[in-house]
């Protein structure tokens, strides 16, 4: 009987975890790479200001805007004028750069 109870508890947890994983992978699949240019780096605030093209997954037109970053180390290497390719999403209610690559 004990074995059945443990298995049932695992099954009860497995379904929501699988749904969460699927949701995260779908969200990542919808994020598109966008070209941008660094306009300002504010390491103290953990933000970078980018002039960028349309971000479809956020329903955002081309504009210039400050974003949080998921990796503060990115801010140490960025310079104003750098051309970048990035993805962004809403994280904890704030627009956040989730991937960032400096274009050479």
Strand content: 35-45%
- End-to-end gap: 63 Å
- Helix content bin: 25-40%
**Structural class assignment:** alpha+beta
Mean pLDDT: 83
What general outline do the C-alpha atoms trace?
Answer: globular
Largest sheet: 5 strands, mixed, barrel
**Secondary-structure element order, as H and E?**
HEEEHEE
Strand order of the largest sheet: 1-2-3-5-4
Low-confidence stretches: 24-29
Please give a structural write-up.
The protein has 104 residues and is of the alpha+beta class. It contains two helices and five strands. A five-stranded mixed beta barrel has the order 1-2-3-5-4. The longest helix has 29 residues, at 2-30. It starts with a helix and ends with a strand.
List the keywords.
2 helices; about 100 residues; alpha+beta; five-stranded mixed beta barrel
What are the SSEs and their pairings?
Layout: H1 2-30, E1 34-42, E2 47-52, E3 63-69, H2 74-77, E4 83-91, E5 94-102
Parallel strand pairs: 3-5
Antiparallel strand pairs: 1-2, 1-4, 2-3, 4-5
Summarize this, please?
The chain has 104 residues and is an alpha+beta fold. The chain has 2 helices and 5 strands; from the N terminus they run αβββαββ. It has helices spanning 2-30, 74-77, and strands at residues 34-42, 47-52, 63-69, 83-91, 94-102.
